[in-house]
Amino acid sequence: LGDVYKRQGNTDSRRRQIANLKGNTVMEFKKEKVYTPLVATPTHNVSQAIKYGNLVFVSGMVGEDENEVLMDGLEAQCERAFLNMKNVLESAGSSLEKVLFCQIFIGKREDRAIANKVWDRYFLNMDVAPARYTVVAPTVAEPYLFEITCVAGV
User: Fold this and answer.
1) How far is CA 113 from CA 62, 78, 109, 127, 134, in A?
2) What are 103-143's pLDDT values in tens digits?
3) What is the pTM of this model?
4) What pLDDT digit, counting tens, does each position of 46-90 carry?
5) Which of 19, 28, 83, 132 lies 20 to 30 Å from 109 when distance is taken between CA atoms?
6) Predicted confidence (pLDDT) at residue 27 exceeds the cutoff of 90
7) Please, are residues 81 and 62 in contact by the beta-carbon 8 Å criterion?
8) Are 116 and 29 in contact (CB under 8 A)?
9) Mapped to the 3 state alphabet, what secondary structure does the chain carry?
10) Are the CB atoms for 34 and 86 separated by under 8 Å?
11) Mutual orientation of helices 74-91 and 112-123 as an angle, nearest 10°?
12) Across residues 3-16, what is the average pLDDT?
């Protein structure tokens, strides 16, 4: 259908008008930056999260506090990364209960047990736990031992 409109010289606004006439709802979303002072400011040109429509996309959270103090050890870094993710979600008007999907990055296969232990503190008692995959790979930057990112509803 899109090619037909293009061949007829119709613009995007005309396409929306036609879609609305057919009873379809066309939504236009604005990309919004999410920020909370409870989490360290990213060092690159990266947002803590982006809200787009009814979804929020959280950047990789690591185990450092809002003053960029890194927690000592894997479990403490996992715990802080989850807390950071929770804080960013809440500043976006979301919550851990609305998390749809997570990606976890750990440095060694043996680290899964500790990462799962912390995961369970946050997600074990939910009716529907988020989908997730875990990547075992060298960490992005020393001395980070854990990183988590997610997509959630708002």
Assistant:
1) 18, 11, 9, 22, 12
2) 999 999 999 999 999 999 999 999 999 999 999 987 667 78
3) 0.81
4) 999 999 999 999 999 999 999 999 999 999 999 999 999 999 999
5) 83
6) no
7) yes
8) no
9) CHHHHHHCCCCHHHHHHHHHHCCCCCCCCCEEEECCCCCCCCCCCCCCEEEECCEEEEEEECCECCCCCECCCHHHHHHHHHHHHHHHHHHCCCCHHHEEEEEEEECCHHHHHHHHHHHHHHHCCCCCCCEEEEEECCCCCCCCCEEEEEEEEC
10) no
11) 40
12) 53
User: Amino acid identity, residue 89?
Assistant: L
Which two structure tokens, joined as six digits, stand for 97? 């209960």
> What tokens were used for 48?
């803590």
Tokens of residue 2, six digits: 């899109």
Q: To which residue do tokens 């008007």 refer?
A: 93
